[in-house]
Amino acid sequence: MATPGLIPPDAWDTHIHIFDPESFPYGTPRSYTPKKALLNEYPFDTTTCANLVVVQATVQGHSAEPLLATLDGNGRPDQCTHIRGICTVDPTTISDGELDALHAAGVRGVRMHEMSWGHGTQSEVQAISDKIKAAAARVARLCWVIDVFTDVCTWAAMAPMIRNDVDPRVKLVADHMGGAFPGDEKLQDFGVFLGLIRDGLLYVKLSGFERLYHGHSSGMQTLESALKSVVAAGPERILYGSDWPHTQLGVSRKGKSDQQRLNEVEEFRHVEDRLHIETLRNWIAEESTWTRLWCDNPRRLFE
């Protein structure tokens, strides 16, 4: 349970997943098979977030049906004020009418997961850039988010494209700290990444911490320098995401065959979200910045 008063009222968690394979079977091929995780299982007592953004997971394929079923409000927990969605779309085939219908249902963005974690082919910078530009051309009129999970060096390499070729109505969001692993804050590319934040061209989700510090004995402390730099670069550009229900790390799947990835149902990891939140509070002392993280910034993107 969260410390009373730690998180502001009307807070947002901008990165969760919902899995209901009985109602909506996973796509194939896929890199993993998670167990069920429904909205009523979300840890409201820990985050106290009344507003949630559900992100379509890679295993759910390209159909928005699972996401739309969550957004339609049936069975919505009493603690929930707003539920919004980020989905996977093919900008070359989806119609404007279909995009409008998604928007009316509560979708506010497009997701691009561009980290292979050793399974499949890792996308090249140009390919990711082309995907972003193609999506931006379709969703700019809706002022949607384009939510991308890739690494700091890729963000730096895409900086000229982001500065010159993306419609300013689109809000680019870097998932999971921009993929900044411990030590990346020393790279020149990290400085370029910060420049995008500083110039108002990029939002960053403070999320997925243990995906980044995994294997480091100092845990989240290894991310302190990078996280504080991100916050300082753009206090009006930071968002909180729990990454619930905490699917397994890519390293745990190393060596698995494609068939094992289909057949072996994975448990979720136990992650101390409360400790992560308390650590964030220690690192973000300014009250106005803390409120921006939880309320003002996500409301601007998703309400």
UniProtKB/TrEMBL annotation:
InterPro entries in UniProt: Amidohydro-rel, Aro_Compnd_Degr_Hydrolases, Metal_Hydrolase
Pfam families reported in the protein's UniProt record: Amidohydro_2
Domain Amidohydrolase-related: 12-260
Domain of life: Eukaryota
Gene Ontology molecular function: hydrolase activity
Name of this chain's protein: 2-pyramone-4, 6-dicarboxylase acid lactone
